[in-house]
Amino acid sequence: MGHFSSMFNGLARSFSIKKAKKNNSKSDVKEAVEEMAREAKKKELILKSSGCINADGSNNLASVFSKRGEKGVNQDCAIVWEGFGFEEDMIFCGIFDGHGPWGHFVAKQVRNSMPITLLCNWQETLSQTTLAEPKTGLDESDKTLQRFAVWKYLYLKTCADVDQELEHHRKIDSFNSGTTALTVVRQGEVIYVANVGDSRAVLATVSEDGSLTAIQLTVDFKPNIPQEEERIIGCNGRVFCLQDEPGVHRVWQPEEESPGLAMSRAFGDYCIKEYGLVSVPEVTQRHISIRDQFVIMATDGVWDVITNQEAIDIVSSTAERSKAAKRLVEQAVRAWNRKRRGIAMDDISAVCLFFHSSSSLSHDIHPATTC
């Protein structure tokens, strides 16, 4: 199976270590994966609060920070899992923005469920040789495409499973509540990005002239994007702005001014699912070059008041990388108070994932520091 199968070896070893049955039922697989997560947490490889994570020997450093807004409980949450799937060169990062009366519960449920479900689906894929093994005679570009096809399949299945599990959750009412979900998996020198909703991932890379440039990796899935609006209207949903919110397009039921969602993709929100809201992720990949320095994942509370370029400038000029997310959020708070005075501040959260322990290029990126 060669290099391609190495992305599955860590999980395969973990099941061997846990002596899982050869013919694992879904419950057996989930139990083994949950045990893996508990072990990773004991080793401080999982971060679910503001702070940073930088495992010994890892090229990754992830900085996380979240600040509650002025609308009540903080409905944002995040996760970083170093050594994801028992693979030393893998890291999983996710950021989630809940909304509605149960939004904070929904966001945390999806945060906790998504990496576990992804690994469960990963284990299932191990037994499907047509997916797990590339065809012989393929060149490296074709193998890259096939690896991406597997990740896309895994994410599509995972998001469908997570949304279905959420719908039937006995303790969380997600009929009128939901969450966005933006995740990045780094595996070696490739990142896989899956986005549901209007959080955003922005890459910082060094251009030919040596300047640090922002590249937006995701689409903000707002209801007025043509293909999103077309789908919603095709399902008898409606898209329009309220008079006191010009420019803020929302999704509405056919005959009621409810729920008024400001995004076109989300987990939960089953009151509007049959009218065009979906939890299908957009999945993309990028090979990390020496010029690519870090990626910022942030909820819309950041992007409402900070541009992509401003964000990477703030992060790159932070003296300690471990404090990069905090400084970005603090700058967004200041910008919100300046630009949106009188409007209740949204929850503001960010994850900054650095790719290199130090840079071989001459620009204003500081080396990683111990957390």
Strand content: 15-25%
Number of domains: 1
**CATH topology term:** Phosphatase 2c, domain 1
Radius of gyration: 20 Å
SSE series: HHEEEEEHHHEEEEEHEEEEEEHHHE
Q: Biggest sheet: strands, sense, closure?
A: 8 strands, antiparallel
Number of extended strands: 17
Approximately how much helix is present in the residues? 25-40%
Output the structural class.
alpha+beta
Per CATH, the architecture is: 4-Layer Sandwich
- Per CATH, the superfamily is PPM-type phosphatase domain
SS field, number of helical segments: 9
By CATH reckoning, the class would read: Alpha Beta
* Mean of pLDDT: 88
Outline: globular
Distance between the termini: 38 Å
Catalytic activity: O-phospho-L-threonyl-[protein] + H2O = L-threonyl-[protein] + phosphate; O-phospho-L-seryl-[protein] + H2O = L-seryl-[protein] + phosphate
Cofactor: Mg(2+); Mn(2+)
InterPro entries: PP2C, PPM-type-like_dom_sf, PPM-type_phosphatase-like_dom
EC number: 3.1.3.16
